[in-house]
Amino acid sequence: MTPNRKRSAVAALRERFGVSERRACTVVGIHRSTMRLTPAPVTTEEAELRAWLRKFSTDRPRWGWRRAAKMARRAGWQVNNKRIRRLWRAEGLRVPQRRRKKRLTGIGVAVGAMSPIRPNVIWAMDFQFDTTADGRTIKMLNVIDEFTRQALAIEVDRAINADGVVDVLDRLALTHGAPRYVRFDNGPEFVAHAVSDWCRFNSAGSLFIDPGSPWQNAFIESFNGRLRDELLNSWRFDSLREARVIIEDWRIDYNANRPHSAHGELTPTEFALQWATTHQPQVA
């Protein structure tokens, strides 16, 4: 509890129960000299920063004070983490807590040796599900580049069969070129044979993960969690068309505005551009 809140608690105790200031301060746990200290007036700069934090919390309800501090500095504020944390708590801002899911267990083996070293080496793919307001299911096919963390595509439809998966891969290959490997779930739902055939026809390798071992596809599982936490859990789609538009807007925003600590707080788009600029062939 902050000193200002403790002062308010002391005032409430004295007003409601008629106790002395000494007794109220003892109950609340605040020194009497702190109680009598006049808080410094709020400066214009701090008021503007507090307003920015409130707006940030409204726009990004699933982002906490640490990410708020990073985004504040990107927005031009000269602030450190301690000040942002203090103002964040003073404004009563917090990320709503969700129940933690039970950890999955399995018999899989680590695949850390297949870590990407440049863009377009490994694409990770997975399905995700949600519903529209009428209770009908929508299915999403998420595809990311494991090196840049870019969300290459989120295909949204009522059902996505083997032909739909291949169409998405063909469309991405026309834009980015075929990857060296595709990592995906070797389950019956993912139509593994169709994806394996596509990989063979496009000179790409296929990396299967063991059933019940999502950690072997950690990058896409992390992306799925962000999509679920930041959008799907807080939005009710009225139709398939609305879901497609809003999810695509979220994908673009994720690539352009969401910094990653693994990339030195660069967004996926910024990191991909930086890598391309740094590693482009030298002109003779």
Description of the structure:
Residues 115-276 form the Integrase catalytic domain. InterPro entries: HTH-like_dom, Integrase_cat-core, RNaseH-like_sf, RNaseH_sf, Transpos_IS3. This is Integrase catalytic subunit. It holds the Pfam family HTH_21. Involved in the transposition of the insertion sequence. It is a single chain. The protein contains eleven helices and five strands; from the N terminus they run ααααααβββαβαβααα. Helix content is 46%, strand content 13%. It is α/β, with parallel strands linked by helices. It has three domains: 1-38; 42-95; 120-277, Nucleotidyltransferase, domain 5.
% residues in beta strands: 5-15%
Shape: elongated
In spatial order, strands of the major sheet run 3-2-1-4-5
Separation of the first and last Cα atoms: 64 Å
Which homologous superfamily in CATH is the superfamily of the largest domain?
A: Ribonuclease H-like superfamily/Ribonuclease H
Give the radius of gyration.
25 Å
For the sheet with most strands, the description reads: 5 strands, mixed
Contiguous low-pLDDT stretches (5 residues minimum) are 104-113
The quaternary structure here is single chain
Any idea how many domains? 3
- CATH C-level class of the largest domain is Alpha Beta
> Count of helices?
11
Percentage of residues assigned to helices: 40-55%
| DSSP strand count | 5
Q: Please trace the helix and strand order, writing H or E for each element.
A: HHHHHHEEEHEHEHHH
CATH architecture of the largest domain: 2-Layer Sandwich
Structural class, judged by helices and strands?
Answer: alpha/beta
CATH-defined fold name of the largest domain: Nucleotidyltransferase, domain 5
